[in-house]
Amino acid sequence: MSAVAVSRPVADPGVTVAGMASPAITALDSAGLPYRLIAHGAVGSLAEAAAVRGVAVPDVVKTIVVRRSADDHLFVLTPGDRVVSWPKLRALLGVHRLSMPDAAGALAATGYERGTITPFGASTAWPVIADERLRGREITLGAGERGLAVAVDADAAIATLGATVADVTDPQPTR
Predict the structure, then answer these.
(1) What kind of fold does domain 4-171 have according to CATH?
(2) Whether residue 4 has pLDDT greater than 80
(3) By the 8 A CB rule, do 77 and 66 touch?
(4) Is 173 a residue whose pLDDT tops 90?
(5) Of 37, 128, 132, 161, whose Cβ has the fewest other Cβ atoms within 10 Å?
(6) Does the pLDDT at position 10 exceed 60?
(7) pLDDT tens digits, residue range 11-25?
(8) Cα-atom radius of gyration of the chain, to the nearest Å?
(9) Residues forming a β-bridge with 153
(10) Residue 144's closest CA among 125, 105, 116, 121?
């Protein structure tokens, strides 16, 4: 499987390589955040996503939707080789309980299906927490559609999103 990378001019906002409007691409263009659009086919794992995007696994960022209460969510951006540390995240937020919504809840909260979720262009601009290990690198994020990603400077994305940067992950457990 191969990927097609396309550098996007801001003058052509909100159009993906498939010719469809994308809230994520529109949001990136509106923010003036430089990015490289990567179109690839379906992937079955994070390692496969890294391979088709031409990056290392830690540079494939997972966007996790976390539920604080019925109508209060946030996005947590984690490197691909790490998982959310619930104790660290609860301590950062000063709460005792967090959960992950089911697929329908995630779609309702973000406007995106699982596997395509990104804070860019989400139906609600929930707060964003970025793991500190993302700083200083180029990362890839989902772009709101299956088989579509964007490569961005992590520091610029963090600034654009107004993200809180903290140590909120642990290494991915080995099986």
Answers:
(1) YbaK protein (3.90.960)
(2) no
(3) no
(4) no
(5) 132
(6) no
(7) 344 444 455 568 999
(8) 15
(9) 138
(10) 116
Q: How confident is the model at residue 174 (pLDDT cuts 50, 70, 90)?
A: confident
The two tokens of residue 44 are 């079955």
Amino acid at 138: E
DSSP conformation letters of the chain? ---EEEEPPTTSTTB-TTS-B-HHHHHHHHHT---EEEE----SSHHHHHHHHTS-GGGB-EEEEEEEETTEEEEEEE-TTEEE-HHHHHHHHT-S--B---HHHHHHHHSS-TTS--STT-SS---EEEEGGGTTSEEEEE-SSTTEEEEEEHHHHHHHHT-EEE--EEEPPP-
Among 135, 128, 127, 139, smallest CA distance to 56 is for 139
Tokens for 2, please give them: 């191969």
Measure the CA–CA gap between 162 and 175, rounded to whole angstroms. Answer: 35
Segments making up each domain of the chain, as ranges: 4-171
pLDDT tens digits for range 84-106: 999 999 999 999 999 999 999 99
